[in-house]
């Protein structure tokens, strides 16, 4: 498959396919004598898996590690559970940060409603 076909079927840009190849998400594509990349059908599914893992909260490095563990046959639910636990911990931390930011913003909004807006610097 040509790079444009892979990108289209995977729902990503051509630049994303190139980036994933550079970072090791995809194995290096074979090249035709003309220099065009030729990807296997499995490249589409691999990109979809990488995107699904990123959508869950995996970092790109974690995606690469997880895919390499899968490639070597070392990935099992028991051996990979720690990756998911790490993602859940990061999500929980983000939620806590957002809740703090919401409480702070809500307090400022209540001040504004009472005529004491902290954002109206220099005005009364």
TrEMBL record:
Q: Which domain of life is it from?
A: Bacteria
Q: Which Pfam families match?
A: MerR_1
Q: Is Transcription set as a keyword in this record?
A: yes
**Which terms are listed as keywords in the entry?**
DNA-binding, Repressor, Transcription, Transcription regulation
Q: Name one GO molecular function term.
A: DNA binding
Alphabetized PROSITE patterns for the sequence? HTH_MERR_1, HTH_MERR_2
Q: Does the keyword Membrane apply?
A: no
Domain HTH merR-type: start-end pairs: 1-69
> What is the protein named?
DNA-binding transcriptional regulator, MerR family
């Amino acid at each position: 498959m040509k790079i444009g076909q892979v990108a289209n079927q995977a729902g990503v840009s051509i630049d994303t396919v190139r980036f994933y190849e550079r970072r090791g998400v995809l194995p290096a594509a074979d090249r035709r004598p003309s220099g065009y990349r030729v990807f296997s059908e499995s490249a589409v599914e691999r990109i979809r898996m990488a995107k699904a893992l990123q959508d869950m909260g995996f970092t790109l490095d974690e995606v690469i590690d997880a895919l390499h563990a899968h490639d070597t046959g070392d990935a099992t639910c028991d051996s990979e559970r720690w990756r998911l636990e790490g993602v859940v911990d990061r999500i929980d931390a983000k939620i806590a940060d957002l809740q703090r930011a919401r409480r702070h913003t809500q307090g400022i909004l209540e001040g504004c409603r009472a005529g004491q807006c902290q954002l109206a610097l220099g005005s009364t």
